[in-house]
Amino acid sequence: MNELSVSRPNNLDAYWMPYSDNRYFKANPRMLARAEGMHYYTPEGKEILDGTAGLWCCNAGHGRREIKEAIQKQAAILDYAPTFQLGHPIAFEAASRIAEMTPEGMDKVFFTNSGSESADTALKIALAYHRARGESGRVRLIGRERGYHGVGFGGMSVGGIGGNRKQFGALLPYVDHLPHTHGLAENVFARGLPEHGAHLADALENLVALHGAETIAAVMVEPVAGSTGVLVPPVGYLERLREICTKHGILLIFDEVITGFGRLGTNFGAERLGVTPDIMTMAKGLTNAAVPMGAVAVRNAVYDAVVDGAPAGIELFHGYTYSGHPLAAAAAIATLELHRAEDLPGRARAIEPYWQEAAHSLRGLPNVIDIRDCGLIAGIELAPRPGKPTQRALDIFRRCFDEGVLVRVTGDIVALSPPLIIEKPHVDRLIGTLADAIRAEAA
């Protein structure tokens, strides 16, 4: 166990916290000081059961010795090396390890530092691909309502969460959106993939008719949308989307930042859901969040078109100072070895039926209007307080934390995504504490 002593900071003013109510937090701070296994600990030593794998990312649990030692060893060997016109061996090894896990034919990996950077990178690769093939008129990018693809201007433009967009103006041009798949009355309290809604993918045909297929570069969707409240794709929806994209020469991008690395009981959501995209983004679970890292995997044909179709010299004018950072690459290799050695996707599959039953046991509690699940993800949707949207879920989040359990809220939805090492007693405590909080906030 990490015995490092971490004191409470004496000044909270300097740090402008992301996606936070800074004024409320700094008046009512809830702090995490260390982590081990399934738990965080406050500066006072109170144990907090992690029901969210940090932010969907610590799939192997916290404080894993193997990852820590890999980072320490690499820091002593090579702390940093640029990857512009140079290379270092461990970045190539990390890319090869990822390529072993991606769907067949997706063997080329571009490194980023986050899911946001992965989203913007994927969109730029899509544009570069069409230009390399002589179709430079394909500049339009299609996202989906209630989609989340990070906070870069590209991903935010293609994303479809109004609160993330409204402060920042018009964003990118030539962007359109498919309808989201949530809200069909027949799918309320569905277990796993809902039965109704595959037809919603046909909206892509409407956009093709409106804009012309020759103007559309790519469609980006999450296999399972997480940050917008756990929206699970209807049976047949992704297959239909794949079919239409192929028909019209449009690249299909899967944002696998939360669904990758075992979350759905398979290496990637593409495998669980039986649909292979042309480009796939990833981050979070790639390094178990020990060091920031993201990546984009592409079909070999996409890579070949961009690289072989370019004149001599640099083929893709894109990259980051920290692409393939040595410490991140070391963390990725150690993390992926843990996933293989401990079969974390298999552990997720084994406990999924118990997890699903536990999540749906919340049905019938006050104000619970829907429950959705897929893999080791669950979303519990609540009726908002009249005139105070989001407040009920926020109060439940705070109450759960004070009772020693970490959940995540988005709008009036409680989202759960625990580490894949979770066991039945952890599930019982997580769901039991949440149930008590839902009852306590019934008014």
TrEMBL record:
Coiled-coil region(s): none
Cofactor(s) the record lists: pyridoxal 5'-phosphate
Matching Pfam families: Aminotran_3 (PF00202)
Record keywords, A-Z: Aminotransferase, Pyridoxal phosphate, Transferase
Entry's Gene Ontology molecular function annotations: transaminase activity
Similarity comment: family membership: Belongs to the class-III pyridoxal-phosphate-dependent aminotransferase family.
Name of the molecule in the record: Aspartate aminotransferase family protein
Species of the source: Paracraurococcus lichenis
